[in-house]
Write a structure and sequence with these properties.
Length: about 100
Amino acid sequence: MNYAEPAKRAALIDGIRALADYLESAPDVPVTGYATIYAFSPDGACAGMRSEIDSIAAQLGVEARETAGGSHYTALRSFGPVEYRAVAICDHEPHESKG
């Protein structure tokens, strides 16, 4: 999977804003109390994917973390009940744990 090119990124952002506006104007439409936007690192060697997540974590101002079980490496930043989560899925090869 690759990241969205600028035009698709802009369309996604516009869609998120439009959804927020719609939900605000339609209070009877049910929603959950949270939402997550995912960005998955491009396929590759686990070390490279983890490095990509470290880079995203730095941009977000957060620390990347390994999930329980160690097959996912994530960086997340919350905006109230909405979170942006970058994920590397490394279950296809062993890796060394950080720190």
